[in-house]
TrEMBL record, chain A:
Protein name (Swiss-Prot/TrEMBL): TonB-dependent receptor
InterPro entries: Beta-barrel_TonB, Beta-barrel_TonB_sf, Carb-bd-like_fold, Plug_dom, Plug_dom_sf, TonB-dep_rcpt-like
PANTHER family documented for this protein: HEMOGLOBIN AND HEMOGLOBIN-HAPTOGLOBIN-BINDING PROTEIN 1-RELATED, TONB-DEPENDENT OUTER MEMBRANE RECEPTOR
A Pfam family: CarboxypepD_reg
One GO process term, biological-process aspect: siderophore transmembrane transport
GO cellular component: cell outer membrane
CDD domains, per database record: ligand_gated_channel
Membrane topology designation: Multi-pass membrane protein
Family: Belongs to the TonB-dependent receptor family.
MF (Gene Ontology): carbohydrate binding; siderophore uptake transmembrane transporter activity
Signal peptide: 1-21
Keywords: Cell outer membrane, Membrane, Receptor, Signal, TonB box, Transmembrane, Transmembrane beta strand, Transport
Amino acid sequence: MRCAYLGPWLLVSLAAAPLQAQPTRATLEGTVRDVYGNPIMGVNVVLIGTLYGAATDAHGYYVIENVPAGSYTVRASAVGYVPAEASVHLSPGARERIDFALVPTIVEAPEVVVTAARRAQPVEQVPVSLSVLPLSALAQRGIATLDEALRYVPGVQMAGNQVNIRGSSGFTYNAGSRVLLLVDGFPMLAPDADGIPFELLPIAQIDRIEVLKGPGSALYGSGALGGVVQVITRDFPEQAETEVWLSSGAYKPVRYAEWRAHWDGARQWRPFGTAIFTHARRLNDRLGGWIHATYLRDTGHLNANERTMLQGYAKLRWQPRADVRVVVLSGLTWRRSNAFLYWNGLRDPLNPGRIPASGSKDAVGTNDTQSLQWTFLPALTHVLSPQLFYTAGGRLYALALRPLDEQGRPKPLSKGTLGFRYGGQLQFDWQPTASQYLTLGATADALATRSSFFPEADHQPFRSQPEIAVFGQWEQALGLHWRLTGGLRFDAYQVRADRWITRLSPKTNLLFQAQRNLTLHAAFGLGFRVPSLAERYIENQDFFPIVSNPDLLPETSTGYELGLRYRKNAGSLAEMQLELALFRTEYQDLIEPRFQRERLAFQFVNLTHARIQGLETLLKLNLLSNRFESQLGYTWLDAKDLTGPQPLPLSFRSRHLFKGGLTIALPAQLSTGADLRLASRPERIDSEFARFVPDADVTVPVRVLDLRLSWQHPKLTLTLLVKNALDYYYVERPALLAPPRHLQLQLQWRP
Amino acid sequence: MRFFYFGGVLLIFGLFAGCDGGLAPPPPSPLAHIEGSVYYTGPWPPADSVRELRFVALRFVPQNALDLLLRFNELVFSDTLRRFVDYDTFRVTLDLRGVVADTFYYSGIAWKFGPGLLDWRPLVVYDRPIILRPGDRWLLVFEADFRRPASFPGTP
């Protein structure tokens, strides 16, 4: 009886076996070349409406494997070329081929950016000012950290480790950042003082840095008071890649005998170096990623200003289905450093100073610490239909910071800082028609920090600051030429058990495409920044006399901008891009440190009402098939402090900023270039600091020239850099001498 | 091509031809300064108990008020400070011509509380050495409270 049933079943099974073994998925491959037949590397080839895609290799070849059978539209796009599309039907098991020939132009193929509107969109459609710094620009300039990179962005000025976008930040003694840092869309300010952690990310794994200029809280919440720095990390390539970067250099001895007399180290070349290893590969048709290791050692150009860093990072991308993608970015950074806080006056600027006060000990101008940071950023993207997808992500940023004793040994963590920033966000993107786009989302985050700088409250060692937000944005194309965007975000921050701070941040943008190569835009947006835990609770006498102020209010900003973008392409002979922006931002309740006589210490207080308005221009010129590339950026700032009865210049802002860059291709695979940074002397600085630190009120204009010479071979790039070639001595922020001339030799090897 | 290259280089260096080297040490000076602020946090005593206030820096550690008199040539002092104010500033200038360095082991705000020659006492002190070289500028900050005045090291 049993055999009677088994026989037919076996027959059916055997008959079905070939059917089951038949592949249900297909492969698409091909090449992408320019109209002259030259292969193009790095072209994104995607199946529209899915997460399937690939990038072309050095031969212009791409392959997209394991694609479910069906009909697709394939799109190939790259910077500098008109995107091309083709339709394809993939049968089960088929291996189809589509070759593309892209037409070069800069008019119709803008760079793709994501910052401005929380979604990928062509730069031509971004209705606010934005600067993009690609990895190639970072590598070319031997840049090792994010703050170094930002020094090359037009309109951006660094004040020590504080980022000023169009004068937004000034200098607030390193507590709280008025510019938000995003890593692949996730806010990543440090949990100890809400500052930007410039060494958090491996620079070699950054695809590009986007700098959004102007208040951006309508999409990103607190911190985006003056702008947003968005770091996009690299994806893995189709072909396995290994890369080794070795960079070494030294600071020139100081030229003044009087300064050398106070520190022997200033008589010698002071070395620094970086070693980077990266490996990226596809592990199978669904999984790939990269690993990265960095070792950095810098003996510093100042006494007690050394740092050593070890960093390991990994990014994995897993695509279990055509419509689902999981990306995990995680890294560990160990750092040991002496932070030079303020000098010992202009007669002795190479040594840290101290503030003698009638207490048990003097405050000292250097802070020696050892820190360990761990970041974990998982994100899931699920395409529900060609018009709708969502992204869910989380973030964790843990920091353990221990001060060092006189012998350089780490003190217990109870003497330092332990902080966690964690949370998650969910975002839906819906494009019902080609002319409409809706973004909706919610975030929930928390900050929990225990620090010897923050006194305990109610026996709770951790200070916390949870936050929740919902946001939405609607984009609507109005006819062929107009595009209107409206956004709104609601934020709620718990600053005490019984107190929440809430903010409603709207934004409106209008874009008008006057011609194919000319767009005009108008933007309005609000920004705010909730005071950091450090600003509210810090109590310290060791480095600087400072006391807490738990009742600080958020800073707010209202920004307006009118802008123009124009691109002109005269074939391969000349390409030109011109950007012009008029901007005005009103700031209220800016938090500044003020000396409180009754407390004999500084305290952060809501003090300043300010207005910053100005003009920014950017001209990019590429000549002779990119053999000559130049970029000139100029920013004029009118920054006024409106707190008192009479307007005064706003502290620490330069009226004129200029950034210029030049790269020239030479014969024999050589290229040379120069970058020039100029900033006028700030018209006013905070004189209270100078009451305690000698010559802290001394400033000069910034005039920095960097030179470079590269030799490029398919597997090897050698670059010689001379930074601050004029050996010009200056300060970016009070009482801290910027690096003198330093030489750097960099080798990039791709075996 | 060469035109662009050399033109660019010439432009950049031309731009900087007239530039200085930025920050530099101040011109040499034989003078050194001790400067600072004193902040008064408590109530002021009656006027006849605060007859005079001065910043004083001593090259020795005094045991009592008599030391100030006996070793008068080993101390420097500021002008009289203002009374009945929230804070005041002081400045002492020394001529260190031909001297490598000068050291002051004890300094502070001296308070004359009575009419007598020896009616002086420290109000607030800075008891770490101040080492001054020609050209130096030493900044000090004091927090003074008449309810909790300092005392001479030799005073029990």
